[in-house]
Amino acid sequence: MSVRIFARAGTSVRLRALCRCLEVLMRKEGLAAAELEISLVGERRIRTLNRKHRRKDTVTDVLSFPIDARAPKGGRPWCLGEIVIATPVAARQARRARRTLTQQTLRLAVHGWVHLQGYDHERGPRAARRFETLEARYLEYLKRKGLMPWDGSLRL
Q1: Chain centroid offset of residue 41 CA
Q2: How far apart are CA 30 and CA 24, in angstroms?
Q3: Cα dihedral sign for 24, 10, 151, 63?
Q4: Alpha helices for the chain (secondary structure H)
Q5: Is 12 helix (H, G, I), strand (E, B) or coil?
Q6: Residue 143 in contact with residue 149, Cβ under 8 Å?
Q7: What is the pTM of this model?
Q8: Using CA atoms, how far apart are residues 15 and 23, in angstroms rounded to an integer?
């Protein structure tokens, strides 16, 4: 299992803490043999990705790109996908929600994680409730493990 994080040098996000939390979630879901990539990017990059892959020419906070939903046969290494987070957007959200940048980045990473599990909150109210329930459960699980102080809110 590995979580690879790509970020600019000097980021104030606690990368080891972020990595550790996602490794715990991967283990919880029985995905210890998988790989996951996280990229912390600026607004220009996430807007380009959003335009290219979702045909939305706007800045967003997080995007998820699934690669392999299931492990390949033969026990070969496999990658679940990539979660891309716009840290300037996360920083603004963190200030509004009175969280640290690391807490907000992790919250967005968990949001992306739920997408990689095959859930989509944009498929209607019922799907949105299921999505938020899973998101809250993952965050609460991390809190119980002592990995992330979380206020119980999903507000941005």
Answers
A1: 13
A2: 10
A3: negative
A4: 15-28, 43-54, 87-97, 101-116, 125-144
A5: coil
A6: yes
A7: 0.89
A8: 12
* Fold annotation for 2-144: Collagenase (Catalytic Domain) (3.40.390)
* Distance, CA of 122 to CA of 110 (rounded, Å): 16
- Whether the CB-CB separation of 89 and 46 falls below 8 Å is answered with yes
Instruction: Tell me the domain boundaries of the chain.
Output: 2-144
Q: What is the CA radius of gyration of the chain?
A: 15
pLDDT tens-digit series, residues 48-97: 999 999 999 999 999 999 887 665 666 666 788 999 999 999 999 999 99
Expressed in angstroms, the distance from the first to the final Cα of the chain is: 30
